[in-house]
Amino acid sequence: MAKVVLVLYDDPVDGYPSSYARDDLPKIDKYPDGQTLPTPKAIDFTPGHLLGSVSGELGLRKYLESQGHELIVTSSKDGPDSVLEQHLHDAEVVISQPFWPAYMTAERIAKAPKLKMALTAGIGSDHVDLQAAIDRGITVAEVTYCNSNSVAEHVVMQALSLVRNYIPSYNWVMKGGWNIADCVARSYDIEGMHVGTVAAGRIGLRVLKLLKPFDTHLHYNDRHRLPQAVEEELNLTWHATRESLYEACDLVTLNCPLHPETEHMINDTTLKHFKRGAYLVNTARGKLCDRDAIARALESGQLAGYAGDVWFPQPAPEDHPWRSMPHHGMTPHISGTSLSAQARYAAGTREILECHFEGRPIRDEYLIVQGGGLAGVGAHSYSKGNATGGSEEAAKFKKVN
Ligand code: NDP
């Protein structure tokens, strides 16, 4: 019998939903590159229902308890008195979502002698100290592709809303105004702009494809170059360095994982390479950016707007400067946890658990760390090391109801 600790975000403040806005979800057969959707033996949830908050339990309780395992579900994840800390001593599996990450630092891994797997119900395992997992032989896995397209939609939404000045214009409506000049004094068309992505993996490439019909000029930088046919189809300009991409673009979007190579890659020095008045959209990870340098660039006008849904730490404390800096369009970390995405990553989490408990191999595309080294997707997209430093600040967050 294993203890599985599942860390999820809180239920809605007005209670777990008893009905939903729509009756079903569109059917998707496979991901754009042909990868199959998750294939668990069964699911015990209704796709389209809220699964990612505590009461939703990712639909895992029936399955795990029927196998004799113990399931602890909690949103209490930060600080020494958290429920997560209380269960580390005998947990075999810790599952969490990047939206509400259970930071598995080296200290916490040391307190979890029985831990065999840190499972990310989503994509992005930077909340786990990968070096500590490598050193301890712990498996780190995530549900690759489950919400990549969801995030790409969010990137396009936020890119358009910054360029067109949507949120301030909406706010004038809410205030009872009709202040057209106030709204349009910062409003442009994206048509004709140069748009670049740092990383053209699953999300970055999708963003490029979605933006192509807007008649933008598309740019990218990545450690590996895309096939020539893709570059030609999208008329892409490849940049060997990120700085060269920043210099060429009106709007930059970050779509690479957070790992030691990318931490704080946007800072006071690299921001000098951006065109004055560039827009930056970051739905990848907050820590790709130096928090205070972003606020300074918005105040000085070096950036015309910043949007995204990722912060560091998460949840962001009330006094996090990104809540109050000018010209931002931030949301909490939601892009990858639409009801549509939840159904996919809940099924993927179940698939990975089935493999773990039945001794079957976990799909290579889901692996980040295994057998004492980076593995699968992790070996391609991450670098060794740790990016969890400073995560203890998440304990400063106070719930708002
Ligand atoms: P992929 O693994 O498909 O793509 C990641 C890409 O990043 C790869 O092409 C990789 O390059 C590239 N990359 C890695 N390091 C660098 C670097 N130093 N410079 C330039 N490119 C680099 O992942 P996804 O596209 O699905 O997701 C990307 C990230 O987005 C995740 O790691 C996660 O942090 C974030 N994310 C956010 C979500 C949200 O809800 N906001 C949800 C899902 C993901 P290569 O492989 O060629 O080395």
UniProtKB/TrEMBL annotation:
UniProt: substrate binding residues: 123, 147
Swiss-Prot/TrEMBL GO biological process terms: formate catabolic process
Catalytic activities: formate + NAD(+) = CO2 + NADH
GO terms for cellular component: cytoplasm
Statement: the UniProt record of this protein carries the keyword Transmembrane: no
Enzyme Commission code(s) on record: 1.17.1.9
Superkingdom, taxonomy of origin: Bacteria
Assembly mode: Homodimer.
Family (UniProt): Belongs to the D-isomer specific 2-hydroxyacid dehydrogenase family. FDH subfamily.
Protein name (Swiss-Prot/TrEMBL): Formate dehydrogenase
Organism, as annotated: Paracoccus caeni
